[in-house]
Amino acid sequence: MISFEQFESNLASVRARILKACQVAGRSGDSVMLLPVTKNYPIDAVNYAVRCGLSAVGESRVQEAVDKHVENTTAVRWEMVGHLQSNKAKEAVTIFDRIQSIESIKLLKKLDCMAKEKGRCLPILLQCNTGADPDKYGFSNTQVSLALETALGASGLQVDGLMTIAPLSQDREVAKRAFEGLRELRDTLVCSFGVPLKELSMGMTGDLEMAIAAGSTQVRVGTALYGVRSQ
Question: What pTM, to 2 d.p., does this model score?
Answer without folding.
Answer: 0.95
